[in-house]
Amino acid sequence: MFTNSQRQEERTGKYGTPRLVYLQELVTEFQSSTGEESKEKIAANLANFAYDPYNYTFLRQQLNVLELFLDCITEPNEKLVEFGVGGICNACADPANGAIVTQCGGIPLLIQCLSSPVRNTVNYALGALYYLCNASNKEEILRPEVVDVIKRYAAAGAVSVSFSNLAQAFLDKHFHEDRDS
Question: Which residues contact 112 (CB under 8 A, 6 or more apart)?
Fold first, then answer.
């Protein structure tokens, strides 16, 4: 559920931890953690906070969590990749967050995730690319090999309805055979 300052104050209470402080603690714990399982849980937790517009400014401007998510995508741990891509997908519905992801080289990383063996990673990558694709980066995203992969997902309804629907939505919004090929 989306929140606002008043609702957050009510939920936190007089002695609770303010959201920014809590998120900072999570980031610090992630950065100092050496255990894979601990990092996975923290990345998943941060990704869950990334969907709420109330948290966007904290995640983007104060804590650099979008960059943390991009770093997760470069890890060999498939769970960290999944949660990193999930966090980016959740956050990049906001154009300012999408701009950070794009400026930090996130598009090639997301395109790589389209070939992940983890279904959630592929779905999150499709969703993130759906939000990120615009006039300034369309050429980078709509390369023939990328469109081909997305078309294959769109045609794979019998295998995965979620891949198929999301891929088809991407194609409907961003790719028009007669105009783009």
Answer: 73
